[in-house]
Amino acid sequence: MDTTVIAIQGLKLSLRGAKQRSNPVNFCKKTKLLLLSLLFLSCPASEKRDNPWENPQPVKTTITSQPPSTSTSADATFTFTCTSLAPCTFECQLDGGLWQSCTSPKTYTGLTAGSHTFSVRALDAAGNVEGSPPAYSWLIDLGAGTWQPTSTINAPEARFAQAAVWTGSKMIIWGGWNGTTRINTGGQYNPSTDTWQATNTIGAPAGREWGVEIGGVWTGTEMIVWGGRGGGADCGTGIIFFNDGGRYNPSTDSWGSMASTGLGGRDWFSMVWTGTQMIIFGGSSCAGNVNDGRRYNPSTNLWSTMTTVNAPPVGYSNHAVWTGSVMVEWGGYDGFDFSDPGYRMGGRYNPSADTWTPTTLTNAPSARDYYTSVWTGTEAIFWGGAAGSNLFNTGGRYNPTTDIWEPTSTIEAPTARKNHRALWTGTEMIIWGGDDVSYTNTGGRYNPSTDTWQMTSLKGAPSGRVGHSAVWTGTEMIIWGGCCPMTNTGGRYTP
Question: Could you tell me the pTM of the whole model?
Fold first, then answer.
């Protein structure tokens, strides 16, 4: 007999019995049960196999709306659906974090700038989890300004820790480490034509790299490079600390020699150009840290000594700026103890009088190395760096006229980092790149007048790196080279 007929007959008998016993609860329950049985038994076999509760099918989620691939909002909303016949529940994941129960639409707020990835997966009524959930990646760009790449046609070979200067029309880079050896090649980059021209190697100094952010200065007609290191990797494998240099004239594409300094070779020193002299101070070598220096006059090709009376007790990675009348020197590290208050000390050096005046310790930033420095016209700004494994996004503004320190704001400041680059535009300090646990391509613009930060744009920015060059042209910041990996790419940033 057909199962449908049997079910109908059973339904009649059951309903009659329930009604005779006058039990409305049992009557209702049996009615529902038998009606469901009737519906199921009356279906063809092919349809019974599609019963979602008896034979669940694989679930699949589709993301139906999402932010644009590059978003200028810190918020993101996603909508999604499930293709299963049965009701689905969902779990969402952001940036590889924990899966958490969610519903569509799902909104995230207050996200940080950078790349993010959203994933969502469905669970069916039986608890089966979707095997290959969809994911969507996008970039949040909260910064200002625009980037465009520098040409790699005829660009110098990839390198990092090279010297770089701006001539007024071209960026010159020279030296550095190519991953195998220190090199004495370089290039002139013209941003107006986006073209490169190699520098002559005839008469060039031996190849070298610098641990400081600046290995050369521009005199108005020549690039002067001095010091640095070459040879082996460390003091036990034949490293060489240089105490010589060279003068490169881009107009004639030629190198000139420099007189001997009488100083020991070194790296991690500070270097400034006064308008008539190059001053070098401090640094380190296999012989230890030093706090002496010299002044070089390219017009006479002569070096002058510097007093060490009241000079700062700097180690390596000290930094300095030229104010127009004095060199302000601050910070550095002896390689042993960041808690030593001596490494929060600095000095103001007057080359006309050959005298040092100490800078105050009151409100000075904490001791650090691998930080940056710029001169604004009235203040020296020292920012970022590290003390061992502790990275900083703090800094200080020092007024040499009043001998007063003021802290830089950390509100919306870039991530803490070291080995970044900094420059002064005339109104803002721009910092970019460096090591913030990974090699970053983020940056920030600091306005000392308002003590405020604004992010640099991420769209079109070069890849994250350390050991790169940075120069200010008057309208653009040019970034070039660096690692890791070693690169000969770069970018031009217009604020």
Answer: 0.80
Per CATH, domain 146-494 is 3.90.550.10: no
With H, G, I as helix, E, B as strand and everything else as coil, classify residue 18. Answer: helix
Contact 298, 219 (CB under 8 A): yes
Phi and psi at 406, nearest 5°, equal: -130, 135
331: exposed, middle or buried (Cβ count in 10 Å: 0-12, 13-18, 19+)? buried
State the CB neighbour count (10 A cutoff) for residue 412: 11
Annotated domain spans of the chain = 3-42, 61-140, 146-494
Mean pLDDT of 273-285: 95
CA-based nearest residue to 306, from 333, 282, 284, 283: 282
Reduced 3-state DSSP string for 29-95: HHHHHHHHHHHHHCCCHHHHCCCCCCCCCCCCEEEEECCCCEECCCCEEEEEEECCCCCCEEEEEEC
The CATH number of 61-140 is 2.60.40.10
Q: Do domains 61-140 and 146-494 have the same CATH topology?
A: no
* Coil vs helix vs strand at 291: coil
What was the pLDDT predicted at 317?
Answer: 77
Q: According to the model, what pLDDT value does residue 359 have?
A: 96
Dmax over Cα atoms in the chain, in whole Å?
A: 124
Cα–Cα distance for residue pair 39/455, rounded to 1 Å: 64
